Predict the structure.
Amino acid sequence: MISVDIEKKLKTYSGQRVLKIAGQFPAGSITKVYGPSGAGKTTFLKIIAGFIKPEKGEITVNQTCWLDTGSGIFMPPQKRGVGFVFQDYALFPNMTVKEHLEYATNDAAWIERLLIIGKLETLTQHKPEHLSGGQQQRLAILRAMAIKPNLLLMDEPFSAIDAEMKLKLIGELRKLFDELKTTVLIVSHNQQELDGLTNLEIIIS
Amino acid sequence: MIINLSLMDFNPIWLTLKLAGITTVLLLAVGLPVAWWLSKGRSIFKIILEAIITMPLVLPPSVLGFYLLLAFSPQHGVGKWLQQVFNIQFVFSFQGLVLASVIYSMPFMIGPIKSALQQLPVSLSQASYSMGKSKWQTFLYVLLPNIKPSLLTAIVLTFAHTLGEFGVVLMIGGNIPNVTRVASIAVYDSVEQMDYHSANVYSLILFAITFIMVVGVFVFNKYQLKSPLE
């Protein structure tokens, strides 16, 4: 169970506003985080991952406190074991497809399996600049899965992937999520995009 | 004009290359962590420190040399203490030239590296952290390899800039053969003595080294941009 209750000041064009989110996400659930652009969806994920500190809040994951601003507890992102798929992919320009996964894990069999799931097995020696947008996004998803995360945070993860590939990939990912009992939060600005994959929804407005 | 090289004293050239090499290595060791630290966030302390590091770019070299001369004079303060306690003398010595060169060339090393690090998306570091990697591992395996062209530019600029130092070197080092008489001072000294032949040889060698290095950087950076599939 993941329990989140945070408050973070956001700077917007129209001034300052406060992002307030409270919710609970059962272990193994897949939650769609929906809301308009600029609502704070990405900030919400980055707070859970530990990349951004909120002014106030608590985050507890399976009885372990990751954040408690009241008592000054802050677990660094390195210790949270959270898989993160970035909206801009955040691929490392100096690394090939295979090196991305090897940087995350030493498990060669797991790497091979992920490459097949992402249909990148023939592109292992390619660097990101020589991949298409869809291939880059698939690599970003595979890299996040490489650490076998208990919690996976995905920021617009399927925006550059074509419909047919998306359907296949979602099917394969769902199997992995079940296998690893991964709790997933997926940000989307399109309310219908993830229908059938997610079983919970949180709206940030 | 016939150039007779057998009569030439090449020690100023070797001394210059030694000084530039040591300065570049020292500045690389100091500059990388400082540039990394400066690239992350802003604070009034960082702004002041960056301004101090940048000062040699705009300050007349003789002014910097004059203050270093005063600071490390064995008759006063720090210089006297260093001489008495560690038997180190920075004035009119090679180590003094190294110290002055490190201070004088610091903006050439730190500036390009800091700018390159700032231009990398913050999500690269965050992605690395999410995989459990430490800040040091992230710097070594993710940030540093992705600023290679800027790193090379910084190294070459530092080396080339040290080759051409004159004012600051003359102020703190003087013109002692085999100790502080670097090539730029040897050129000036030769011209003063109407020895245009030596001045010409020293100048040609400095020109050639600098030209080859700068062309090398341009070629490397162009190659980086047009890298074929690996």
Chain A touches chain B at residues 46, 49-51, 76-84, 86, 88, 90-94, 96, 103-104, 125-127, 130, 143-144, 146-147 (CB under 8 Å). The first strand of chain A starts at residue 2 and ends at 12. The radius of gyration of chain A is 17 Å.
